[in-house]
Amino acid sequence: MGDTDPIFSIQKHDATHLHYDFRIEVGGVLRSWALPKGPSTDPAQKRLAIPTADHELDYATFEGYIPEGQYGSGTVLVWDIGTYRNITEKDGKPQPIDTALGAGHAVIQLDGKKLKGGYILQRGGDGGQPRWLLTKVQDEHADARRKPLISFPYSVLSGRSLDDIKREEGPE
User: Fold this and answer.
1) Which of 31, 45, 103, 109 would bridge 40 by S-S if both were Cys, CB 3.0 to 4.6 A apart?
2) Mean per-residue pLDDT, 30-51
3) Domain span at residue 59?
């Protein structure tokens, strides 16, 4: 992976409900999805990915406590971070990531500290609320037995837990 590959970040976010925010750099911002159950390394597990607001690129490394009443209130840690490559093709030709997402189907190759390998983002469902699924590609990094959310709960940047961050930065 080259130095110019775009970034991805997965933040563990204890807000109203514990979830993971999956973010990929696209067009100078972080396109974002909330994963209620977090990412999986098992290709049989299709994880719901709910689109959320785009974020500035520097948010990829944000850890801290967001006070009540502010957007995204709760405690956040960087669960994984790295770069990704867009490997989406259509009719045997590479597709730009923004085109792929616009069409509702993107395949990316993650190179993170905890997650590696291919993942598919697929839009589905009808109605006004778009629903996406994040699914692990069957590759050398796929492992149905691996439970990274349980085995590696801490921040890849600070080594802290959500409780550590809340205790250090949260309300008095």
Assistant:
1) 45
2) 97
3) 7-169
